Amino acid sequence: MTNNTSTSSAAAAWSGMVPVDDTALAVTDTGGAGIPVVYCNGQFATQGYWRRVITELGTEQWRHITFDERARGRTSGRSKDYSFEAAVRDVDAVLAARGVDCALVVGWSYGAFVAAHWASRNPERAIGAVLVDGAYPYDWLDDAMEERIRTLFRRMGWFTPLLRPTGLTPRMSAAEQAESNIELGRISRERELGPVLDNITVPTRFVVASGTSFGSKGDEQERIRTSLDTVTARNPNITSVKVAANHGAILKKEFATIAASVHDTANQAQARL
Fold first, then answer.
1. Do the strands 35-40 and 103-108 form a parallel or antiparallel pair, or are they unpaired?
2. Which of 167, 174, 172 is nearest to 47 (CA)?
3. How far apart are CA 181 and CA 71, in angstroms?
4. Which of 217, 216, 241 is nearest to 228 (CA)?
5. What element of type H or E holds 255?
6. What is the pTM assigned to this prediction?
7. How far apart are alpha carbons 137 and 253 in whole angstroms?
8. Alpha-carbon gap, residue 21 to 16, rounded angstroms
9. Could you give phi then psi for residue 201, rounded to 5 degrees?
10. Are strands 35-40 and 62-67 parallel, antiparallel or unpaired?
11. How far apart are CA 17 and CA 61, in angstroms?
12. Closest CA to 29 of 20, 40, 42, 16
C-alpha cells in the first residue's frame, strides 16, 4: 500500500462548480492541510447532510470535500447520464478538480455503493472507506419490486417538483428517479457487489443502521443488512458497527459514531504504512 495519510501543503478553502461530461457539479472544499475526505451522498440527497459529521471531525486534521451529484441540490446541473457509473466517475472528477490524489471516501446509502466501488477500483488512491448503511450485497430486486418502485415514484411525482427550488428533491423526472433506484437493485445483487467488496484492500468500516428505510416494508431492511456477515467473514479489511438510528436518521443521530469511524479508519491506514 502506497497511500500517504500524513498532511500535505495547505489548500485554500473553495466552493464552486466543477465541469464534468455534459454538466457541472456544486463542490465545497474546506481546504487546509489535513487528510482529504470525500463524501458521497444518498441517492437524492445533498452535501448538506454531512454537516454534523464534518463539524464533529473539525478541520484541524481533515480536509472535507463535499459535492452535489448531477441534478441534485440547488445548483448541480442536469445531465443525460444519471447512471451509477457516472456517479463513480464524478468522484474522480471532483478530486481531480481539487488537486487531490489520495482520499478517504465516506458514503451514505447510495453513496456507500459509490464509495465501495471507488475504494475497490482505486486501492492505491483510497486511504480507507466508511460505508454508512449501504452497499449490502443482497438480491432484493425482482419484477414485483421493480413495479413497486415505479409506482412509488409515479405517486410522488405530483409533489416533488414543488420542492425542487429548495434543493430537497432532484431535478429528475419520476421515471429517471425510478430507473436509478432499479439500477441500484441490480448493482446490489450478491454476484455483482460481492466481488467488489471482496476486492477492497484498504481499511473499511460499515456503520449499520437499524429498522426500516424509505420504501421498505416489515423486516426487509434488516434482512438485507444480514448479508454483511459474509462480507466481513471473507475480507479482514472490512469491519462493522451497529447503531440504533434508522436509515433516514443515521447521519443526524449517529454523526459521532460516523466521525469516530473516519478517525479509526485513518488510524488503521496509518498503522499499515
1. parallel
2. 167
3. 15
4. 241
5. helix 255-272
6. 0.93
7. 25
8. 16
9. -115, 0
10. parallel
11. 25
12. 16
Radius of gyration of the chain (CA): 18
**Which amino acid would we find at residue 248?**
G
Say which residue the cell 477500483 belongs to.
121
- What count of other Cβ atoms lies within 10 Å of the Cβ of residue 269? 21
- Closest by CA to 63, choosing from 37, 100, 44, is 37
Per-residue exposure over 73-92, b if at least 16 CB sit within 10 Å of its own CB, e if not: beebbebeebebebbbbbbe
Find, among 198, 173, 154, 206, the residue nearest to 44 by Cα: 173
Spell out the residues 6+ positions from residue 96 whose beta carbon is closer than 8 angstroms to its own: none
Cα 30 from Cα 9, distance rounded (Å): 14
Residue pointed to by grid coordinates 409506482: 151
Q: How would you write the pLDDT of the chain (273 residues) with one tens digit per residue?
A: 344 454 457 999 999 999 999 999 999 999 999 999 999 999 999 999 999 999 999 999 999 999 999 999 999 999 999 999 999 999 999 999 999 999 999 999 999 999 999 999 999 999 999 999 999 999 999 999 999 999 989 888 777 776 666 666 899 999 999 999 999 999 999 999 999 999 999 999 999 999 877 656 668 889 999 999 999 999 999 999 999 999 999 999 999 999 999 999 999 999 998
| Strand, helix or coil for residue 155 | helix
Cell 454476484 maps to which residue?
A: 191
Q: Locate cell 492505491: which residue?
A: 124
In this structure, the number of other CB atoms found within 10 A of the CB of residue 142 comes to 10
Contacts 24+ apart (CB under 8 A), 192-195: 192/137, 193/113, 193/116, 193/135, 193/136, 193/137, 194/137, 194/230, 194/231
Residue 14: alpha-carbon gap to chain centroid: 21
